[in-house]
Design goal:
pyridoxal phosphate, aminotransferase, Aspartate Aminotransferase, domain 1, globular, transferase, Aspartate Aminotransferase, domain 2, 2 domains, single chain, AspAT/PAT-like, 7-stranded mixed beta sheet, Aminotransferase_I/II_large, alpha/beta
Length: 393
């Protein structure tokens, strides 16, 4: 172990020092130390990437694609993204030359967007419960996060949005994530149109994280980029739709005037995404648009399996309209301190799930279950949960 020079101990970014590590990862790491534990903590598809996508990557490597790519991504992929968004979600056609950047995952797209479009002290509205990364990145940029507690229905309604804007008239932007992590909630066209009307009136920048757009069960996903393109930065990627989490291909699109700045931020962070991974993403968007369908059908069956198991154990949860998470209320006869509950659950029956409070206000007393796991594992998980409940009665 190398001991740092004592004179350098304080040589750190003090803003970053005050940002805690990902709370999901902290919980998951603790669970990983328990032998025999079954974890449903991370949003990690248990499917493999499609074979034709893997072959495209292999072919690209064999063709010696080992050099720098254009900073904003190879043109073939940017063109594929533009066509995909227009043809699949009815967005305007984004110019591949000036309105699209390929990023190293959606997480880098979020970082680049925050870096490019906010100044220290700017106010960003973030509906909660939500994915903790947003607030962490905002804090590193000295962006003021304004929480919008959506509990108990976990929907941003016009009334909730208006009340938040009245209380914070200087807000510059709102971040929307739907289908939602952690709740699985998504929005109808009418609900989005009502929100878009208010956002248009207030000239708010909309950062719309739609990484789960292909995993909507009962209706077609509607993108905010379709309803409010002149104010929307759309973030997505291939991780969830094509089970390509480890390949790290995301993208961000929006009006050229804003994307010029996002592109500069992206370039300063990573220079460019890896060429072979972009070849795989191009193949996925050109020839693999049906790949998510089979996965989505399986996820829907797994959702119903978990909902049934939760109900038998005494938990209540709204039926998720998308993604692969269920946000369930801990029944009153159990310890409703969600952090204490999940640790006791892990110790007692070796089942690891995420506490709702780590997702922000409105998540207290809830648990998040990821059903991006095998059907067999989910059946075992529900058996263990029911056994735990029976022990505690």
């Amino acid at each position: 172990m190398v001991e740092v020079n004592e004179a350098l101990v304080g040589q750190i970014n003090k803003t970053l020092a005050n940002v805690v590590p990902s709370p999901i990862r902290v919980v998951d790491d603790k669970f990983s130390k328990i032998d025999g534990i079954l974890k449903l903590t991370l949003g990690e598809p248990d499917f493999s990437a499609p074979e034709h996508v893997k072959q495209a990557i292999i072919d690209d490597v064999a063709a010696d694609d080992s050099h720098y790519s254009p900073s904003q991504g190879v043109m073939a992929l940017r063109e594929a993204i533009s066509d995909y968004l227009t043809e699949r979600f009815d967005t305007p056609r984004y110019d591949p030359k000036s309105e699209i950047s390929v990023t190293v995952g959606a997480a880098e797209a979020i970082n680049a967007t925050f870096h490019a479009l906010f100044n220290p002290g700017d106010e960003l509205i973030v509906p909660t419960p939500t994915f903790p990364l947003y607030e962490s990145v905002a804090k590193t940029r000295n962006i003021e996060v304004i929480g919008l507690n959506t509990a108990p229905d976990f929907i941003v309604t016009p009334a909730k949005l208006t009340a938040t804007l009245n209380a914070h008239p200087n807000a510059k932007a709102i971040l929307l994530n739907y289908p939602s992590n952690p709740t699985g909630v998504t929005y109808s066209v009418a609900e989005l149109e009502a929100l878009a009307e208010i956002l248009r009136e207030h000239n708010l920048l909309v950062i719309s994280d739609e990484i789960y757009a292909e995993l909507v069960y009962d209706a077609k996903h509607t993108s905010m980029a379709k309803l409010l393109p002149e104010q929307t930065i759309l973030i997505s990627g291939l991780s969830k739709s094509h089970a390509m989490t480890g390949y790290r291909v995301g993208y961000v699109v929006g009006p050229a005037a804003l994307m010029a700045q996002v592109g500069k931020a992206h370039q300063s962070m990573v220079s460019t995404a890896p060429g072979p991974m972009m070849a795989g993403a191009t193949e996925a968007l050109r020839n693999g648009r049906e790949d998510p369908v089979a996965m989505r059908d399986v996820y829907k069956k797994r959702r119903d399996l978990v909902l049934d198991g939760l109900a038998k154990a005494g938990f209540t949860a709204a039926q998720p309209g998308g993604a692969f998470y269920i946000f369930a209320k801990i029944p009153e006869f159990l310890n409703t301190n969600d952090l204490e509950f999940v640790y006791d659950l892990a110790d007692t029956v070796k089942l690891g799930i995420a506490p709702g409070s780590i997702f922000g206000a409105g998540g207290e007393g809830y648990i998040r279950i990821s059903y991006a796991a095998s059907t067999e594992d989910l059946q075992t998980a529900m058996t263990r949960l029911k056994h735990y409940v029976d022990l505690k009665k």
